[in-house]
Write a structure and sequence with these properties.
Length: 232
């Protein structure tokens, strides 16, 4: 089966080449296409991406003309996916592409339609960072679980893999980080959907190292959980 990897990207000139090269380097036996959506970066990322495209390291490169957000980038990327499975990859080094195989294996084996990674289960390496971020993540995941009636441990995780026909049938609306609770709510409503969760490693960044999510994104996530679970 072919795997389409969508990489939303904004101001990641320090990491973008390495993460793009890692995707195929760490998965030599997999048929992978890479779709990068740059969200109007201003730090030289676009130039590096154009170089990578010219080197045939990227299959599809989409350049937004203004900053739209992660959710918008994912929606744009989905339009270009030709694989049977679609996976989301952040443009930094917080998540390791060496873990693709265990993320997609339940779908390849026809055991699941959707697979979530989890930074909070399993014995994989995790960098110790912000306590209150962990509390907020736990609260948002708990509230999401209460309304979806599914028992995830990490709703906000980047690593999500979808059978392409499933994700393409969902009408996604959120432009920014609200993608995570929105897609979770809408997937949970699909009849007989099979969702797996696998532990992943996590090498998180501090704000000084480039981490972008802020407290306002937590408030937005709370709105999305309520909106997409309780209202049509």
């Amino acid at each position: 089966m072919k795997l389409s990897v969508i990489v939303p990207c904004y101001n990641e000139v320090k990491y973008i080449r390495e993460i793009i090269l890692r995707i195929k380097l760490k998965n030599p036996s997999m048929d992978i296409e890479i779709i990068v959506v740059d969200d109007n970066s201003e730090d030289g990322t676009k130039s590096e991406l154009n170089t990578l495209k010219n080197e045939n390291k990227i299959d599809h490169l989409i350049l937004n003309h203004k900053n739209m957000g992660k959710g918008f980038c994912i929606r744009e990327g989905i339009k270009f996916c030709s694989g049977q499975v679609i996976l989301i990859q952040d443009a930094d080094l917080e998540y390791d592409p060496a873990e693709y195989k265990k993320l997609v294996l339940p779908i390849f084996n026809d055991q699941a339609e959707v697979v979530y990674g989890s930074r909070f289960t399993g014995s994989d390496s995790k960098r110790v960072l912000y306590f209150w971020h962990r509390v907020a993540n736990y609260f948002l995941t708990l509230l999401s679980n209460m309304l979806t009636n599914i028992n995830l441990t990490d709703m906000e995780v980047c690593y999500k893999a979808f059978r392409s026909d499933i994700i393409k049938q969902i009408s996604l609306k959120e432009n920014r980080f609200g993608f995570e609770p929105e897609v979770t709510a809408k997937i949970s409503k699909i009849k007989n959907i099979r969702i797996f969760e696998v532990g992943v490693s996590y090498f998180g960044r501090t704000f000084s190292e480039g981490k972008k999510i802020r407290w306002k994104d937590g408030v937005s996530a709370l709105r999305c959980i309520i909106q997409y679970n309780l209202f049509k």
